[in-house]
Amino acid sequence: MPLVDPVLVLADQADDDVAPAQGTRELLTLARRIGTPVLVRLPVEEAAVALIEMARRTRPRAILITADHSGELISARVSVHLEAPIITDVTDLSLEGGRLRTVQESAHGTDHVTSEIRGAPVVITMCPRPRRRAAVLTEADVVVAGGRGVGSAEGFSLLARLAHALGGCLGGTHTAGELGWAPRHACISLPGAQIRPRLYVAGGVSGSLRHRAAVRRARTVVAIDSDPDAPILREADFGIVGDLHRVLPAVLDELARRSSTVSDPAEA
């Protein structure tokens, strides 16, 4: 029997085989407002093709994807192939009178834009809860950013996972924005966004004068770079000289271990 008003939900890449991650649970909750959630668990490299095939078979009301860097790449590809409308940086959605209503984060982050979409499917990228709570990058308590040293757009998925695990926002340098690895609205530079988080983690950021000026009000700076002479390391409270593609997975594993220990009643 076909599902009534299916809504495809792409699982967060931080998911494991036991339970959905917080980001996935949030998307499932939102999906229930507008239809029947269908959870799709796939690696990043397979997600776009599979979502396109599923959408053509099931004609979902919407496709929900987390608005991190990998999610933006996947959603763009799905939208093009399905010739479907796409709405990015959505903070809330609902179904009113048979119409799908979405609320988007504005360019300045202080206003909201409401749009009504008729027809299906609609591709929607949802801001994770930390972004909805902080509203904008400049107000975030934790910021994780990357630069040219990340090496590729795919490399930013590691930074996105760390930002998610720390309950923070994802950012990037001016160069990362120009390369298309980081959203332009998330670029940290002068002129541009100046941040003052409690914790700032820089991965593959050499530390130009403009960038260092934009982060000078961060309370604690942690920098990871393979170049021991990178200027950002001189400014950092804690510096790690190494390959972030090896360092960050280890950090994520440790955060996951600590999280599971705290949440396990047997360990309390």
Detailed description of the structure:
By secondary structure, this protein is α/β, with parallel strands linked by helices. It has 2 domains: 6-127, Rossmann fold; 133-260, TPP-binding domain (Rossmann fold, 3-Layer(aba) Sandwich). Helix content is 35%, strand content 25%. It contains 9 helices and 12 strands. The protein has helices spanning 22-34, 44-58, 69-82, 129-134, 156-165, 174-178, 209-214, 231-235, 244-263; strands at residues 6-10, 36-40, 62-66, 86-96, 99-105, 112-117, 122-126, 142-146, 169-172, 199-203, 220-225, 238-241. It has a 7-stranded mixed β-sheet with strand order 2-1-3-7-4-5-6, sandwiched between helices. Strands 9-8-10-11-12 form a 5-stranded parallel β-sheet. Helix 8 (231-235) links the parallel strand 11 and strand 12. Residues 106-112, 130-135 and 262-268 have low confidence and may be disordered.
* Alpha plus pi helix count: 9
Globally, the shape reads: elongated
Order of helices and strands: EHEHEHEEEEHEHEHEHEHEH
Total number of beta strands? 12
Q: Roughly how many Å is the radius of gyration?
A: 19 Å
What portion of residues belong to β-strands? 25-35%
Largest sheet: 7 strands, mixed
Q: What number is the mean pLDDT?
A: 81
**How far apart lie the N and C ends?**
45 Å
Per CATH, the architecture of the largest domain is 3-Layer(aba) Sandwich
State the strand order across the main sheet: 2-1-3-7-4-5-6
Topology-level CATH name of the largest domain: Rossmann fold
Q: What's the number of structural domains?
A: 2
* Helical amount: 25-40%
Stretches with pLDDT under 50, minimum 5 residues: 106-112, 130-135, 262-268
Structure class: alpha/beta
**For this structure, what is the CATH homologous superfamily of the largest domain?**
TPP-binding domain
The CATH class of the largest domain, by name, is Alpha Beta
